[in-house]
Design brief:
2 strands; 4 helices; mainly alpha; single chain
């Protein structure tokens, strides 16, 4: 009887020990499962930080994986990079041409308005000195409105070229600077003034 009681007591302790040993095992497993459930979030946050650090890179680099100005203008191939370079090159040439046209238009209007003499014969006789006055341009004249609209386009293109350069993609940067050089080659020699009165960001 004592052996039987001792055996039951031993079995009771064994079952309690196995139960107590199983509880931490289940607890650790649940914690491990919870940790695994959190891993995708951590991985996505890590990937987001890595992507942002790549996008904010402040060093010149090559390659053909770029997003240019708009999410729709995303390139990932050599052909896409080539056509983007051609478009940016043409845009830089157009910018230089627009600067030249604005200067030419400005001086044309200025020369037409400069000291336009209006002679009034005070005494009704010819040959007497008259009054001369300067014809001032108005804010809402057609010439000034046209200049204002062209100024808007010029500033917009200038900022776009600056943002393209700030991608730090070497090929796109070369497209900007060589386009500006060719544009100046085509239009700069026609300038009759020394001071560039319509220069903006570059």
């Amino acid at each position: 009887m004592d052996d039987h009681s001792h055996h039951m007591h031993h079995n009771h302790h064994s079952s309690m020990d196995s139960a107590t040993t199983e509880i931490p095992h289940d607890h650790d497993h649940s914690m491990h499962s919870d940790h695994n459930m959190m891993d995708p979030v951590d991985n996505s946050m890590h990937s987001g930080h890595a992507m942002m650090s790549h996008m904010m890179s402040m060093a010149f680099h090559g390659g053909c994986n770029e997003t240019i100005l708009f999410t729709q203008w995303t390139i990932s191939s050599t052909s896409g990079l080539f056509f983007s370079m051609v478009a940016i090159f043409a845009l830089a040439i157009f910018y230089e041409g627009l600067k030249f046209y604005r200067e030419r238009l400005f001086w044309k209007v200025y020369n037409n308005l400069q000291y336009r003499a209006v002679t009034e014969n005070k005494n009704g006789t010819n040959g007497e000195a008259g009054d001369s006055r300067v014809v001032q341009p108005t804010m809402f004249s057609l010439d000034h409105l046209l200049q204002s609209f062209l100024h808007l386009i010029q500033v917009t293109i200038s900022l776009m070229l600056m943002l393209i350069f700030m991608t730090y993609n070497t090929w796109l940067c070369l497209s900007v600077v060589f386009g500006a050089m060719v544009g100046y080659l085509l239009f700069g020699w026609k300038k009759s003034i020394v001071v560039d009165v319509t220069e903006h960001c570059h």
